[in-house]
Amino acid sequence: MAKTVFTLTSSELKVDDDMKKSFEENGYIIVKSLLSSEELEKLSRVLEIDGGIRDNAILLNDGHGRNSRLSVWSHPGKDITGMLARSDKVAGTIEELMGGEVYHYHTKLVMKEARTGGSFVWHQDYGYWYQNTCLFPDLASVFIAIDKTDIENGCLKILKGSHKAGRIDHIRVGGQNGADMTRVEMLMKKLELINVELEAGDALFFHCNVLHRSDQNNSDRRRWAFILSYNMASNDPVLPHHHPQYTPLIKVRNEEILACDCTDLSGKGFMDPADDKSIEAQKEVDVNKTSS
């Protein structure tokens, strides 16, 4: 069985044959310390700024009385989040794992707050993106832990190798699209379930057909995750929709992440839930601004 966990030991991430084999066989790889402590600290400060990214959050209902908060945007932009999305160790690694040119499909900040954060049902990302007329499952994502993520605070759970099962039918569950549980339960008898427990700064690179879910956050710790998604340039969606058509991605060296001091969020294209027909979400309401 191919190795699945790798560690970034320098500023550059060299994709070797073991990584490619693991991604092909298992549908994912884990890279420890993808972000340095300095990069993580700087990124966290930007994500937590009032009036910034988190203020564009939407609420996604889990069907069990809980919500998760998500900020979703279409284009990398000029700030540190954009430099990360365009960096060699993120976008360049995805290109090597996928075997060709990719473009930025979207990025999201998923905020599961302590004691209130909602769950995500079993699903494949391609269960959503198939509806966007991406004709082939040539997409992948990078899940970067902003906080330590473990079983206690609702870490990601994946079925190892489930990408080989192809796209599974999905149905609406709460505000989400969930995979057909009859088929998921069959696969659970065949495939290993992995609890993706990560330290802050670690990352999971995974294929769009990997089945995954996460529990509610019932702990006293928040669980924030930064998820960057990419589509192959050759897989340009047939019809325009709420995520971008092919847009050339200009990669940057990893050093640009720390060098970036731009705070301009213009041009990122934050998502309005009314534009996304594959979920049922709503704009977050600030009770401090609306209460009398």
Automatic annotation (TrEMBL):
It comes from the Eukaryota. Residues 274-292 have a biased composition (Basic and acidic residues). Residues 273-292 are annotated as: Disordered. This is Phytanoyl-CoA dioxygenase family protein. Its cofactor is Fe cation. It comes from Amphimedon queenslandica. InterPro entries: Phytyl_CoA_dOase-like.
